[in-house]
Amino acid sequence: MADRQGFFRQVIACLREASATGLMSDKGAEVLTGLSGRATVGALQRMAGLFRGRNDVCYLEIGVFQGLSLLSVALENPDLACFGIDNFSLLDPKGENLGIVRDRTARLGLANATLINEDFEAALAALPQRLNGRKVGVFLIDGAHDYRSQLMALLLIKPHLAENAVIVVDDANYPDVRQSTRDFLLSHPEFRMVFEAYSPGHPANLDKATLAKFEDGFLNGINVLVKDPEGSLPEMLPPVPDSRLLYVNEWLVHRHRLAELAPEALALAQAMLEGSDPAPLLERLRAGVTAEMAARFPDRNLHSAGLTEGRFTSFS
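The structure assignment produced for this chain is given below.
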């Protein structure tokens, strides 16, 4: 109990120091770029350092992108095993990020940074083999930011966390990210949030001065969780919108014939409402309709054909 409370104090001290001074050093500055706030990366570096010298614990992140956080943490903690999970299916239109990460790892001479090039759910399901039996001391969630992906990352990491462990949920400005964190905390009271920070908007929508301020900080928001099975910390939950309409709308979208094209359909609707030329967007929407989509019902597609009409578990 005393050791765990001491760990909580160390985690909070790491966050305060990172908030004040950012990165631990300028190591790798000539090689590393990315989309994280300097305080976020600095906090990860420091919190990973709490496990320095331990062979049974590691740093793990979901969402490597071009390697900024993974390689920055590995640089400052050369004797700590650091792992990153990414199958590079998002935010990689030219298919170049895997090569960038490998090149940067080699240029920095990092032997303690390992890339797990897999879907995150598959990787987490086989985590003991991937981590050679190590437990996770610091876990960063920075992959797909939909509600389910966020929640599954939190649920699937539970059995693999070290006795003292910290979870950092990045991009917490997104309401679905905060909602998944809140739902996890409410249903798993053995975890507590110890820190949250947000900016007034997505980096793409901030003016230059505001962007510069939050690039020095936690950029697009973070939530930081710790294991607290004794319940020694007060409950602290991320704020979420009062309405759950967006989540109800997901159900309406998922059953629609053109569910996979919802983003394109919304872009078309927006162009029409704003008086822009909808023709290019309409053509893109039409081009995206597959034979499988065309064969569906207009609505209430359940994808249940062929499922069993009744099945019991087997037991002896």
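Interim note for the steering committee: The first strand starts at residue 57 and ends at 62. The chain has a mean pLDDT of 95.
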